[in-house]
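New to this. Please check both lines:
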Amino acid sequence: MTTEPKPLGVLLAGGLARRMGGGDKPMRLVHGRTILDRVIERFAPQCDGLILNANGDPARFASLGLPVVADDVEGFAGPLAGILAALDWAAAHRPDIETVASVSADSPFIPTDLVARLEAARRSAGVPLACAASDGRTQPPIGLWPVAFREDLRHALVIDGERKIDRWTARHGCAAAEWSADPHDPFFNANTPEDLDHAERICALIEGT
């Protein structure tokens, strides 16, 4: 039985965090640990290395020891720009890598079988792309992306002005890997102070404290 090669993982942290009042959402504390630490703990074993997509001064993430990769596209172009930056970084620095897996860096409950199920979904459907879904809703920023698609994505972003992930993925075929949202949504992300309170309650249940 062969094992699929692991993808490079990218933690998408390029958002503006307007609803949180600015700053880096992934560095907010939930139950005594940063959200980003929680994401890394769950995601890193599934990947062949991690990079962090973030704009601005990369020094604020120096303690993580991860390459920090800014968006390739000028202006705030959303998650697709972060995915493109990761594909370009992989092509330049990890030519052995064929795919990149992306997660939102403010989602502390990422499934520990995320990559395996994304890979299984796209192979079962016979399509090149896959994204996560929960409770009947797709989670477009959380997905699996072939490095070979980077020039097509660049054209979509720069020439076509595309910003919606699901419109771009629909051009190529994208399978959805579904997770239950019971007892909590594994793709919950913290956008507001109220969300942080909710994440605290989930952690208390999971960790029994």
Q: What stands out?
A: The longest strand covers residues 137-146. The chain has a mean pLDDT of 92. Helices lie at 35-43, 79-93, 114-125, 150-158, 165-172, 193-207. The CA atoms of residues 74 and 81 lie 9 Å apart.
